[in-house]
Design brief:
With 134 residues, the chain is of the alpha+beta class. The chain has 3 helices and 5 strands; from the N terminus they run βααββββα. A hairpin with a 3-residue loop joins β3 and β4. The model has no long low-confidence stretch (mean pLDDT 95).
């Protein structure tokens, strides 16, 4: 399956004194991309929380910083589903500039109740995650 793509631009606020993207901001870029990926799948996270009392939380991030992004770069964040478990989702997310990999990550999400206990993914969510846009 082709990955979900999210485009963003590097703003001055994303950079350090050298004009290079501050390392923690890659986590913001991939978070925004995950939010757009979930929305593109037709999953309403607010309704999921209100109706089912379920939220997604990041449990683990493995990150490789390969090349620096710089002020005014146009970036693409690609998101691919790797594994779908009972209460766990594992994604590969990469940040690209003109097709060149700048940042690569493996992100593990877990499904939780609002009080922080593990919860199984609802069948509707599982079906959407297994669908054509994953």
């Amino acid at each position: 399956m082709s990955p979900h793509q999210f485009t963003t631009r590097v703003y001055y606020e994303d950079t350090d004194l050298a004009g290079i993207v501050y390392y923690a901001n890659y986590l913001k870029f991939i978070e925004r991309a995950r939010t757009e990926w979930v929305a593109a799948l037709g999953i309403d996270q607010i309704a999921l929380r209100e109706r089912d009392g379920i939220v997604f939380a990041v449990r683990r991030v493995e990150a490789d910083y390969l090349r620096p992004a710089k002020f005014a770069d146009d970036l693409v964040v690609e998101t691919r589903l790797q594994t779908l478990g009972g209460a766990r989702i594992v994604l590969e997310q990469v940040v690209l500039r003109d097709g060149e990999r700048l940042f690569a990550s493996i992100v593990t999400l877990v499904c939780l109740t609002e009080d922080g206990h593990a919860a199984r993914l609802p069948a509707e969510v599982r079906a959407r995650l297994s669908g054509p846009l994953h």
